[in-house]
Amino acid sequence: MSHADALSPLIHAPGAGAMLDPTPLVRSGRNWTAWFGPVISFAILAVVFVQIGSFDFHKLIAMLPRTPLFWLVFAVTYSLTPLCDWVIFNRLWSIPTGGLSALFRKRISNELLLGYVGDVYFYAWARRHVTMAGSPFGAVKDSAILSGVMGNVVTLAMLLFTLPLLSSLRLAMDGRALGISLTILVVTSFGPILFSRKVFSLPWPERRMVAAVHLARIIANVLLYATLWHLLLPDVALSWWFMLSTLRLVLSRLPMVPNKDVLFAGVAVFLVGRELEIAQVLAVIASLLLAAHLLVGLILGLSGLVKQRRQA
Q: Which residue windows are transmembrane per the record (predicted)?
């Protein structure tokens, strides 16, 4: 389940906006935005130093391709979420290009620390660096909810095409768990839409823009992962990788289905064959993403502490 899906029951609850909006802390004089950035920088560095010691960079380097096209596609894939977030908040707040570093730190915090810590960090950054009317909390909250909603909508649409295939594979998918998963997807997809006046803070034209950007990001992510896998194993037709990338999205967003990585690996081997090569491709991408998180987290953590020291 995505972070947005996990948070949505809290956000949709009566009075949730008042409960989750940290603006009263600022108004009461306890301006936590001044120290939250350095805390996040320290936390990122701590996680990086803990994980970097056990990471096998030599093994990863030996498995990586040498083609520039692979690295270009990987860079776009890795940067896609912060770039799309920048498009959204640039349209909403006219944030400068320098805001990209805050959005990369937002992603790193969500991935390496705890879900939605990055969103809280970005809220704190926005309060200190962006001039706007009112609180930025509503926009950050709405973007997170719409990201989850669009992900669920795309998953439901793709499930119509992939469910016959998944059923024919006779994999270890419990029918009751699958039914509950589909129910959760439907509720979390259409619940915010039905109660949009109570859930969302942004006006309809801005919500439509945010939803469109998230939809484009999700579709682009499916295509980019398929391209990365194809570049690692070019003997397999790109169309098969598109199918697998679609299945990966579907499986990743079914909340009650256990062992999703194992299940996806089983689907990939069944469709493509070549078990060892498939396992290596999936391992390379997973290891490369973690290595990128550690490297970017190290750079952003150090740069954040240096900037705070200069401002002190």
A: 35-57, 69-89, 144-166, 178-195, 215-233, 278-306
Provide CB contacts within 8 A for 98, sequence distance 6+.
none
**Cα separation, 84 vs 96, whole angstroms:** 14
Residue 306 CA to residue 301 CA, distance in Å, equals 9
Q: What is the pLDDT of residues 133-180, one digit of tens each?
A: 666 788 989 999 999 999 989 988 887 777 766 666 555 556 666 677
Rounded distance, CA 260 to CA 241, Å?
Answer: 17
Alpha helices by DSSP H, the chain? 3-12, 16-20, 23-27, 33-52, 57-63, 68-93, 99-108, 117-129, 137-169, 175-194, 196-199, 204-232, 238-252, 260-272, 275-311
Buried/exposed 44-63: b ≥16 CB within 10 Å, e otherwise? bbebbeeeeeeeeeeeeeee
Three-state DSSP at 202 gives coil
Cα–Cα dist 312/308, whole Å? 6
List the domain boundaries for the chain: 63-81+136-310
Cα–Cα distance, 294 to 48 (Å, whole number): 5
> How many Cβ atoms are within 10 Å of 157's Cβ, its own excluded?
10
Q: Which of the pair, 194 or 267, is modelled with greater confidence?
A: 194
Collapsing DSSP states into helix, strand and coil, what is residue 234? coil
Distance CA 240, CA 17 (A): 43
Is the torsion defined by CA of 240, 212, 187, 1 positive or negative?
Answer: positive
